[in-house]
Design goal:
Elements: H1 3-29, H2 33-60, H3 89-119, H4 123-157
Helix pairs in contact: 1-2, 1-3, 3-4
């Protein structure tokens, strides 16, 4: 595997570490138990991504050819992210901010992997980047849906309903 792909995986790990730290900090600031648990779960999901990428790094770092097995690369599944119904007004505001930033982080990851796919000459690396792009797009879509629900709840909590 070329040095460029190794650098990409290292950067991907850093990106996921940043996400993990972000969700951990947000969990510490959350007011309700549910918000803390949800944000902690998001941090745990980022840790799964970190472990996945570290495992991938370890598989390819010593590979002199480019014949690593993409068949073993199964992105972790994502579950329900957030339950809006029982959040209080303070947690709604924070959750909106967290998901807004999360959307931007996922979008940046999609752009990062899309650019990496364009620059590589290794067909298997392009396949890897496609997997990572889809992985981040799923999160971006989930975050966007949750953000829209949180936004509706926030407007209602501000007594701006009906919309």
């Amino acid at each position: 595997m070329k040095e460029q792909e190794i650098k990409l995986i290292k950067q991907a790990i850093i990106n996921e570490v940043e996400g993990y730290e972000f969700y951990q900090l947000a969990a510490e600031k959350a007011v309700s138990k549910e918000a803390r648990e949800t944000l902690s779960n998001l941090a745990k999901e980022e840790m799964i991504h970190i472990e996945y990428l570290q495992d991938l790094f370890n598989k390819v770092k010593d590979d002199k050819g480019d014949d690593y097995q993409l068949a073993t690369l199964v992105p972790p599944a994502s579950g329900q992210i957030f339950k809006v119904a029982s959040l209080d007004k303070a947690d709604l505001s924070m959750a909106m901010s967290v998901f807004s930033i999360g959307i931007q982080m996922e979008k940046a990851s999609v752009e990062f992997y899309t650019e990496a796919k364009k620059t590589t000459r290794i067909p298997k690396a392009r396949e890897l980047y496609d997997i990572l792009i889809k992985w981040e797009e799923v999160h971006m879509h989930q975050f966007t849906e949750e953000y829209q629900q949180l936004q509706d709840e926030w407007w209602a909590a501000q007594s701006y309903a009906p919309f």
